[in-house]
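Office hours follow-up: a student asked to see two folded examples consecutively, so here they are.
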Amino acid sequence: MAGEEMESLYPLRYADGTDLDAVLAEVRQSTVRKANEIADLRRGVLERDGVQLTSCAWDMAVRFARGGRLLAFGNGVSSTDAQDLAGLFLSPAGDARPLPAFGLTNDIAVVTALSDDIGFDVVFARQIGAFGRAGDIAVGLSTSGNSPNLLRAFDEAARRGLLTVGIAGYDGGRMAEVDSIDYLFVVPSASVHRVQEAQTTLYHALWELTLAELPAHEAGQSHVPTH
């Protein structure tokens, strides 16, 4: 990488030959701009999908109240988000109630065995086929919405009677074209970083809404949300 390119990527490291105040001002402006972008994006997602979030949380609470479990999955950074999502339900902070959930990339032996013996496209579908049961919840996260292994997992989950929830970026990709996803939430941004930040906010909101709905379902006093 050329020296000029390195300096543009890491201005503070090369600050000796530049105006430090100008560099710091540029960093501040960039930080503020990114913060405004993610705030606007989160606000837009809430305005567009607020009702759908409530409906999805209602359906998730129904399944948890009946003994259902959450299965989360994704690739790359979306894999870590899926693990975070599962951990949020299973081991929340404070006095929040834990709910049964696990990530399908947690067991690397299973992931590598399926990938090596059969193919990476089935790494989630095969686990859903083995562990999933009607009444469970399958949540898949993707930045592009085009991951073949997520699409196959949603098909398998829908076939087995699981509630299916997709969280995607950009325009939703192929996830927006299939009929095997009951609830699809799309973060409409071309920036991978902004998409992932907004997706994290989205599934935290879904977790909070689900917990809020759960007591009424368990008491048999739940209401049907307005779709």
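And the second, which I mentioned at the end of office hours:
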Amino acid sequence: MVSPTASLPGRDRPVLTPGTTFHEVLGTKIDQTPEGAEVAYFALGCFWGAEKLFWEQDGVLTTAVGYQGGYTPNPTYEEVCSGATGHAESVRVVFDPSRVSYRQLLRVFLENHDPTQGMRQGNDHGTQYRSILFVTDEGQRAAAEATLAEYQPELTRAGFGAITTEVTDAGPFYYAERYHQGYLAKNPDGYCPVHATGVRCRPASA
């Protein structure tokens, strides 16, 4: 992990102004948060496939991909992939809690990547591929920590190691370039494998 002093300087202007971008599948603005909706952030490897997993969930109103958890302001994709920004590839998920709970989204998160691999997912290596839950409040933190604790024995029984997923407060989310948004809707055959373990997550009801 790069240190703050060694990270790239970044820039003042964002690489994407989100208010001008509509979701490729859902048709909503990717930065909108309607009244009563909640926001969650998930980093689970390559954000192309991760975003699709979430936009397919009933109750999800919009999604966006971006960079989070590092030091460089408004980074580019190339800068993030260099490992010199400290950011992970992250998905911003806006959801209606009356239709889908944060706990249910945590299950999608855990069952669709390997949370024991540290800074990699399969052949994808680097700090941008690490597993992180960026929580927005104490309720999300409690749910995240409880769900990870419940999932660890299931992984252990299946022969996997310790969970390396970070749980940390959500800092700035920098929207990725336009071509990354809804990437697999625009490029159905695009490369972005899901590195699922096949281990089911059975969290307590939300």
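Two things to take away from it. The chain has a mean pLDDT of 95. The chain has five helices and eight strands.
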